[in-house]
Amino acid sequence: MELTKFEKVCEILDKYEKDPGNLIAILGGVQEEYSYLPEDVITFVATALGVTPGHVYGVATFYAHFTLEPKGKYVIKVCDGTACHVRKSGDVIKTFESELGLTETRKTSEDMLFTLEVVACIGACGLAPVITINEDVYAAMTIEKTKELVAEYKRREAEGQ
Amino acid sequence: MKKITIDNIETTFKNERNVLEVARNLGIELPTFCYQPELSIFGSCRMCLVEVEGRGILPACSTVPWEGMVIQTNTSQIRSIRKMILEMMLASHDQQCTICPKSENCRLQSFAKQHGVDEVRFQSFKPEAEKDFSSLAITRDQTKCVLCGNCVRMCDEIQSVDALKFSFRGAKAKVGTFLDKGIGFEECIGCAQCVKVCPVGALNERHNIKEVWNAVYDKNKTVVVQISPAARVTLGELFGKDAGTRVTGKIITALKRMGFDKVFDTCFAADFTVVEEGNEFLARKKKGENLPLFTSCCPGWVKFAEQNFPDLVGNLSSAKSPQQMLGSMIKDRLTTDMKIKREDLVVVALMPCTAKKFEAAREELSVNGNPDVDFVLTTNELALMIKERGLDFNKLTESELDEPFGLSTGAGIIFGSSGGVSEAVLRYAAETLEKGSTPDLKKLRADKDLKITEIKLGGETLRLGAVSGLKNARKLIEDVKSSKTKLDIIEVMACPGGCVNGGGQPRATVNKAVSKKRAGGLYNNDKVLSERISSNNPGLKKIYADMGEKKAHNLLHTHHQHRQKNKNEGYVIDETPGEKSLHLDICFGASCLKNGGQELYLGVMKHLRENNLVEKTEFKATYCMKICTKGPVLRVNGKQLEKCSVDMAIAEIKKAK
Description:
Distance between the termini of chain B: 81 Å
Strand content of chain A: 5-15%
Strand content of chain B: 15-25%
Number of helices of chain B: 22
Largest sheet of chain A: 4 strands, mixed
CATH topology of the largest domain in chain B: Rossmann fold
Structural class of chain A: alpha+beta
Shape of chain B: globular
Radius of gyration of chain B: 27 Å
Helix content of chain A: 40-55%
CATH superfamily of the largest domain in chain A: Glutaredoxin
Helix content of chain B: 25-40%
Oligomer: heterodimer
Distance between the termini of chain A: 26 Å
Radius of gyration of chain A: 18 Å
CATH class of the largest domain in chain B: Alpha Beta
Number of helices of chain A: 7
Order of helices and strands of chain A: HHHHEHHEEEH
């Protein structure tokens, strides 16, 4: 049987010699295991490093890379860089939100399938407005294409693919 | 000596750490939010901008002066920048100044006035944030914060508590606590030094004014108040008097006029603290155990010790603090003398301190749920109440303290200054060990964070240390643990300089100079008193005789505990589905982790995996089982294993099957 996630956290702590100076690397490792930074694990890491949970929270919220919320199975990144923005990425964002029941503060759908993130330029301005869902790229998005895409992912999920 | 020109005035500087200090020496008051002389330089508020010839506009606080520098501090450009900064701050500030506790004591308010801000040109956006009432000592209001970071640096650099932190970034940046749970959830010890350096209304003392008025106006209640040494030399500051002016007599009159039935002296109880602590020390010295003895009259320090140094909890003096000693003596004595029910007797304490509010609420300092001290008011709160009552403080006549807890010695008075408790204990020890000796105690009065003195008494050498500021205390404890410093008695005061600079005291811009004056007020008071050794307090002798030794011990002593650092709850470590037959609960508190808690966890997990038990096991972690000196701790199906090794755990798990 494999090591549990929590045992791996212990491994990460040992790898970085429980040095608070390595906090960012440690949090990076933890996030790789859990896909986010759970409250309990933050408290455990803080205690093991001899710093306050508030200190770890400060670092974790400073960097956009870290997330304190569990993410959905599919992470949708909508580019809102200049080129995408003028080509109406705003419509795409709104459509995802209404189709998935999300808001500005509620980023992950209740069924834990989708997480919507708005990101700055992803360097594919020629495809604007562009989005990615996990590793897949979808170009020249419109309101209709967005709706179809959501339906397609939901259908695939229902069929267990 | 190097030359510098500021606003066309030629001057010299030596080793001032920045241009701001040089300008202030010249009497040029540059406005700042984030500059606090005792803290590191942060340079975030940009209010102290100056124009440096050849370099342009630079922040004075983070610019090191150089030879021949030419500076203008008040050009029209600089003034307009300052004004704009203030407008931007105001745009994101809750501007309900009239109902803000820091009103008239707020730098944003006074700077806005000084800089002629009569409109805010930017769209107002009040940050959405709930007020934080989770602590008994401090309240927070994020909508008032200007992000100067003084509180964050104070909590870390001076107190090493680190309860307040910046979180998020950019426009969303704020001073926060872990998951915004609130400061009461954190390791905060309630010293309120953060409140003292907060230039605006974001951090405040928690007030108990309403509760106290309610008690005073309740006809069924007898309300008595005790006044601490440090408050009597600072309250005057809030009515225009110099720091260090003793206003005891006027405070008593004010309290009586406000409706308090009796006014007692906390210093009276301080004499008991000295005697109890002194005897405790002599007994420990004889047995050679639990040394060095740490004083326990500072509630901020006691909580800090309980949270961070479980192995030293036994070294804390078990003597209660003067506030609590007097509380329990008042409730014991007055309920009999005045024939009133304990519930109808309300004890209020006037303190320089917000952490005392937490102390008063400690469960162990109550009888059947009724606390020995019902409410704690800070010096600042009392000033507000005096004003609310409509009393012209400076015109009040002087009154005397009430018997039987009104008479104190000079030793009880000097408790309010760092080094004072040590000096009081030493005076008593000298009297006990070598009657008539007058040890030289000058070193304990030095204006330093750490004072160490050595004294020969009765053929023995005693070494005393008095430390203030918890970061200094932490360092001293490390030195004591590594035997680098050897001490017999250690006095710790959480606030720099001791209670004269407590979190409930009037705010001062230059803390050090003011606390020195305040301490001076206490030492002057000590000088004029006829009795200066605690054991010579006639009231004390009488009360000891009345109570008898056993009762005295019960009333005057308490116990300290291992305390979880914050209020995090336990959790299930690994969630695997299925029926669970084995329940394991491991302590992941700081001490247990330091003493091998993680290795124990990994060893047990390895055993479970090798024996295919993982899915049958529910593994829980708890933050602190409060037996920190016996860690690591593991519970196997409820059975507690202390100082648990992997082998011990495996043996128990095998048995459990």
